[in-house]
Amino acid sequence: MNIRDIARLANVTPGTVSKVLNNYPDISEATRQHVLQIIAESKYAPNNSARSLKLATKIPTIALISEGVNNNLTEDMMEMLSIRFHNADHTILSFHDNYFVQDKKEKFEELLSYATRHGLTGMIYFGGDFKDIPAQMFSSLPCPVIFVNTRLPGGPLTDVCSSVQTDHYETARHQMEYLIARGHQNICMLITSVIDTSVYHLRWEAGRDVLKSHGLNDSLVAESDYRCGRGYRELTALLEKHPEITAIYCTADVMAAAAIRAIHDVGKIPGKDISIISFDGMEALQYYTPSITTYAQPTEEMMNYTYDLLMGLMNGTRQHQHITFQAKLSEQESVADIREHIS
């Protein structure tokens, strides 16, 4: 009988059992008593010598790094992974990296140095843009690395790193086509920044390509820098200058709040006079007024796969993989069908 057997019988994680045994305060009393009852019934006694041996053994260290992705969705992904790696008794290092201010090759070299200095066992990197980094540099990664929603170079990366992505370009095409199919022709694109080269640039590029393919204006653009303040100011000015706009295409959910406020403050009704569609699937969007139609990334599925893949890469039972997930349309209240109003 060991700690994992107790966890299985109690239907909790090994980490929870460990916290009960070590009197951690962040366990509910009901859970504590339930686990203690299972321990008593099983006559389980912690093996102190084994615990001492475990402490003397190097504990795997995982880095969770987020670059230039300022939204609750990525925070949720990192939290999901943190919980699972914590319950697997791994050490977790986590930080947010800068995005615009640094040369990408220099950033990648710093990443290599960071992984080596901290003796990382594995790394998961969210966001960023390494598409112009020579593919051979990836072979210098000192531990298994999975890039999540990161732009990577073409070339032979199959055996040197892994990636887990959403199909950003094709999903964004569907996002714009969804608006056009409902009669919208004067569509504003609320983007992160014209100098953003991350996956959010792919979303903007896809929107422009669809507008051009329909012979529509692709120059109605407002920037946000992932901040509601700038997005609100630029969008308000654009809506006042172009009252013909009937829809806003957001390249990220985090901008939707700015869109709602800007529409309201120019004297129009969000979701009725001006529609809004977004991309990511943040839960909060269901509680806006109006609730926001978005294309949701399958975050739980993506993170479960990421966790299992990294664990397999670290213990040698899995090979590197490059997996693309599909986002799913979540229809809410924010898009009006105006086809019947077009003369």
Provide a compact summary of the structure.
The chain has helices at residues 3-10, 14-21, 29-42, 48-56, 72-87, 104-117, 168-181, 199-213, 228-241, 256-265, 299-315; strands at residues 61-67, 91-97, 122-127, 145-148, 162-166, 187-191, 221-223, 247-250, 275-280, 293-296, 322-325, 328-330.
Helix content class: 40-55%
Based on helices, strands and strand pairing, what is the structural class? alpha/beta
- Uncertain spans, ≥5 residues at pLDDT below 50? 49-56
Q: Report the sheet-strand fraction.
A: 15-25%
CA-atom Rg in angstroms? 24 Å
Any idea what the shape is? Answer: globular
| Spatial sequence of strands, sheet with the most strands | 2-1-3-4-5-11
Structural commentary:
With 343 residues, this protein is of the alpha/beta class. The chain contains 11 helices and 12 strands. It has helices at residues 3-10, 14-21, 29-42, 48-56, 72-87, 104-117, 168-181, 199-213, 228-241, 256-265, 299-315, and strands spanning 61-67, 91-97, 122-127, 145-148, 162-166, 187-191, 221-223, 247-250, 275-280, 293-296, 322-325, 328-330. The strands form 2 sheets. The chain has a 6-stranded parallel β-sheet with strand order 2-1-3-4-5-11, with helices on one face. Strands 7-6-8-9-10-12 form a 6-stranded mixed β-sheet, with helices on both faces. Strand 6, helix 8 and strand 7 (221-223) form a beta-alpha-beta unit. Helix 1 packs across helix 3 (29-42) and helix 7 runs parallel beside helix 8. The longest helix has 17 residues, at 299-315. The protein is globular, with a radius of gyration of 24 Å. Mean pLDDT is 89; it is low at 49-56.
